[in-house]
Structure formats: structure tokens, C-alpha cells
Write a structure and sequence with these properties.
Length: 79
């Protein structure tokens, strides 16, 4: 499992978690929103982890390319 947090000032992405057996990438954005991306190849997750700019990598390699679910919205509906 890949797990990262980013203490930088006002980062676009605060944290990332990757489960290779599920090919699932969870991203926590600076806005507080939490998204789960499905069928993300391990290579994409690795390159994301290595990217100097997580926001730039997200915009060019992840956004709009993988199915995603907004998890905080699901939690709000349950509460």
C-alpha cells in the first residue's frame, strides 16, 4: 500500500493511498474532498508518488481518465 501525506503550505493534494490488489487510488484534496479512483495501474500510482508536483500530475495523468467516487459525499448522505 502506498500512503503519502504532504505538509507543504496549501497543497492541492493533502494525502494519497493506493491499494494495489484493488487498483484503487484514494486522494484527499486541499479542499477537504476525498475521491476514490478505480482501476488505476500500479505504474500510475508510483509515478504519482514520485511526482514533484502532485497537482500537476493529477491534472495531466489522473483527472478524467479513471472512474471516481466522491467519498465525502457518500458519507454525508449516510449521516
Amino acid at each position: 500500500m502506498l500512503c503519502m501525506t504532504h505538509p507543504a503550505i496549501r497543497p492541492a493534494i493533502h494525502g494519497a493511498w493506493y491499494l494495489p490488489n484493488r487498483r484503487q487510488l484514494d486522494l484527499l484534496f486541499g479542499s477537504g474532498r476525498h475521491y476514490r479512483y478505480a482501476n488505476v495501474p500500479a505504474d500510475v500510482a508510483r509515478r504519482f508518488a514520485e511526482a514533484l508536483s502532485k497537482g500537476r500530475f493529477y491534472n495531466s495523468e489522473i483527472r478524467g481518465r479513471f472512474a471516481c467516487t466522491q467519498l465525502d459525499a457518500e458519507l454525508a448522505e449516510v449521516a
